[in-house]
Specification:
With about 425 residues, this protein is of the alpha/beta class. It folds into two domains: about 290 residues, Zn peptidases (Aminopeptidase, 3-Layer(aba) Sandwich), CATH 3.40.630; about 140 residues, Alpha-Beta Plaits (2-Layer Sandwich), CATH 3.30.70. The protein has ten helices and 16 strands. The longest helix is centred in the last third of the chain and has 23 residues. It is elongated. The N and C termini lie close together (about 10 Å). The mean pLDDT is about 95.
Length: about 425
């Protein structure tokens, strides 16, 4: 890490740019990069690229042609910017996703106005994660403005589709070597997991679809059919009575936050049964026994569990119902899965952030893990680069909520920490 005097001057420069980090966050919020469908990706990528090119970065715009979701109307355009230091050395990469979820209902402010008031920036993506992106840019620009020499290189990327899995963003780039040595050595993802915490990884996820199959009949004579909705109800009752209690007893050594997420969880994401009613508001239902009912499951699992075991628990319940009810029939389809990811607490990127957090905040860093997945999964799984963590400003529980916001002071503190950690990694790795 830079010496104490250098750090003091660097931190002072970042303090002086608190208004700028707020303004940059607000400007990014005003570009409504809603996913799905993937609105305004190109304007956002070019906004970032033009700013960084003006600071001496080499900028690439990389469209994930052929990836899911990519089209001429909604091009999946990623921005990767790189600036070289003096001589050989490692590369520190700051990766942020530019997409945000739809605002939804319940807002008391315009979700895309980027309002700045009372020390906060409000809007969809303020916390998750345009505030973190802005903080990383201010951190690196402060290093350049201060004239601090460093070996190796620094990269900043704005990537797409993290909210829908990241397959046209970090995954696509990782497949092409953008998150692997020798190009990149250390990755920091500024997700909103508190300014005093280093996020080492995340729980695993298995999404699946259960389809219960019945037999259609006239609704006035349901005894001539088999209701798939009743069959699904029986499955859901068994999950409630048998599986949920077991999941509640399982705890992980992973430092997952919030504390309730340190156990295995299962959510019923959506439920669809029978034929749709005709019309929107005044449609009349068909007099039919439902012959199909579909349920999407979102199972979050722990480092101590395997994906095969997680799946088998659901299959066992379905097979038990098949034995108990001769007319019960089902199909189970995998939708998506990601294994748990956990970077070792003594990895170089973790140690560098630990030192920087203590230097800036005056207290030891916390190590946490995320309840949900983020793009670290692709860096580790595809890029085979394991010196990767999430660190950034923002309150995790505000992500995807109405009236989402980020504190300006938190962005300033995190920018100092990211700047100090980057310099620490560049100089220590080079030496």
């Amino acid at each position: 890490m830079a010496d104490g005097t250098q750090n003091h001057l660097l931190f002072q420069r970042i303090d002086e740019r608190s208004d700028e980090v707020a303004d940059l966050t607000a400007a990014l919020i005003r570009i409504p990069t809603i996913n799905p469908p993937g609105d305004a990706y190109e304007p956002c990528a070019r906004f970032l690229g033009e700013r960084l090119a003006a600071r001496g970065f080499t900028v690439e715009y990389l469209r994930a042609e052929g990836a899911a979701g990519d089209s001429d109307r909604y091009p999946r355009l990623n921005m990767v910017a790189r600036i070289e230091g003096e001589g050989a050395g490692p590369c520190v990469h700051f990766n942020s996703h530019i997409d945000v979820v739809a605002p939804g209902a319940g807002w008391t402010v315009d979700p895309f106005a980027g309002a700045v008031r009372d020390g906060r920036v409000y809007g969809r993506g303020a916390c998750d994660m345009k505030g973190g992106l802005a903080a990383s840019i201010i951190a690196v620009e402060a290093i350049l403005d201060q004239g601090i020499r460093f070996p190796g290189a620094i990269e900043i990327s704005g990537t797409v589709d993290e909210e829908s899995g990241g397959y046209a963003g970090v995954a696509w780039l990782a497949e092409r070597g953008h998150f692997s040595p020798p190009r990149v050595d250390h990755v920091i993802i500024p997700e909103p997991l508190y300014k005093d915490a280093v996020c080492l990884g995340h729980r695993g996820v298995w999404w699946s679809e259960v389809e219960v199959r019945g037999r259609i009949a006239h609704g006035s004579m349901p005894f001539l059919g088999v209701s798939a909705i009743r069959g699904m109800g029986a499955f859901m009752a068994k999950v409630e009575d048998e599986l949920y209690p077991r999941l509640a007893q399982r705890r992980t050594r992973m430092p997952v936050i919030p504390d309730q997420a340190r156990q295995s969880t299962l959510n019923f994401n959506s439920l669809h049964g029978g034929l749709p009613e005709q019309g929107d508001d005044d449609g009349f239902p068909s007099a039919l026994v439902a012959d199909r009912c579909r349920l999407v499951l979102d199972r979050r699992y722990l480092l101590e569990e395997s994906e095969d075991e997680v799946k088998q628990e659901v299959v066992d319940i379905l097979d038990a119902l098949k034995d108990e009810q001769p007319d019960f029939d089902y199909a189970l389809r995998d939708l998506w899965s990601v294994s748990p990811t956990l970077t070792e607490p003594d990895a170089p990127v973790v140690r560098a952030l630990d030192r920087a957090i203590e230097a800036v905040l005056g207290a030891p860093a916390r190590h946490v893990a995320s309840p949900g997945t983020y793009d670290q999964k692709h860096v580790a799984r595809i890029g085979h680069l394991h010196d990767c963590v999430a660190y950034g400003p923002g309150i995790l529980e505000l992500a995807h909520q109405p009236d989402e916001y980020i504190d300006i002071d938190d962005m300033v503190a995190s920018a100092k920490i990211m700047a100090a950690a980057a310099l620490g990694l560049l100089h220590r790795s080079a030496s």
